[in-house]
Amino acid sequence: MGKVCAIFGGSRGIGKAVAELLAQKGCRLAIIARNLEVAQTTARSLGAGHLALSCDVSKEQEVQNTFEEMQRKLGPINYLVNAAAINRDGLLLRTKTEDMVSQIHTNLLGTMLTCKAAVKSMIQQQGGAIVNIGSVVGLKGNSGQSVYSASKAGVVGFSRALAKEVARKQIRVNVVAPGFVHTEMTAHLAEEELKKAIPLGRFGDPHEVAHAVLFLLESPYVTGSTLIVDGGLQLLT
């Protein structure tokens, strides 16, 4: 029987691309998003045997309830992918406090809460793998994205520390840090102008990032690492 994978933010973008690859591998998937209807559409498109759930990752009780339902219907969780994120781009002086809080709660606190629930399950089965989706701006920073950058930098620091905590339990924790990728989150950007700053000269595709996620899920001797998938953007100062 295939491995069980929970994908938060799995209904669209990078999360959906990861789901499609894992489904091809024979995994049984829980597609989790705030919008249940969209999650159900994605789950159905992957074939039979997959689960769709609604969850606000910033709320601990919802996260706990989601994991309990996943375990009842699919069994113990082998893989966790955290792709749920929001951004509220803008200069810091123009950013509302509530927009700061919402980004930190979804992008960072949400990752912590889902990892906490997953680790509890993975310890019981003596192993598992977690991949958290960060961002190259969490490593380099970006004007107009100070809060988003901070939340994604927090994901990297959190993941490295957690990897140390759970390695003896045979649980691996890694990060994939994408650059500019074609998703709803980047649809508003001036692509033609930004492509000039990317050494490979183009935006990435979600499936290109998904292959990096799959590599880290399946690599038994890699933990505490951040894999950058950005077309060479990190090479620039």
Automatic annotation (TrEMBL):
Pathway: Lipid metabolism; fatty acid biosynthesis
Domain of life: Eukaryota
SMART domains the record matches: PKS_KR (SM00822)
UniProt keyword annotations, A-Z: Fatty acid biosynthesis, Fatty acid metabolism, Lipid biosynthesis, Lipid metabolism, Mitochondrion, NAD, NADP, Oxidoreductase
MF-aspect GO terms: 3-oxoacyl-[acyl-carrier-protein] reductase (NADPH) activity; NADPH binding; NADPH dehydrogenase (quinone) activity; quinone binding
InterPro entries: KR_dom, NAD(P)-bd_dom_sf, Sc_DH/Rdtase_CS, SDR_fam
PROSITE patterns: ADH_SHORT
Domain Ketoreductase stretches: 3-212
Subcellular location: Mitochondrion matrix
Cellular component terms per the entry's GO annotation: mitochondrial matrix; oxidoreductase complex
Gene3D superfamilies membership: NAD(P)-binding Rossmann-like Domain
GO BP of this protein: daunorubicin metabolic process; doxorubicin metabolic process; fatty acid biosynthetic process; protein heterotetramerization; protein homotetramerization
Family statement: Belongs to the short-chain dehydrogenases/reductases (SDR) family.
Protein name: 3-ketoacyl-[acyl-carrier-protein] reductase beta subunit
Species this protein is from: Anas platyrhynchos platyrhynchos (Northern mallard)
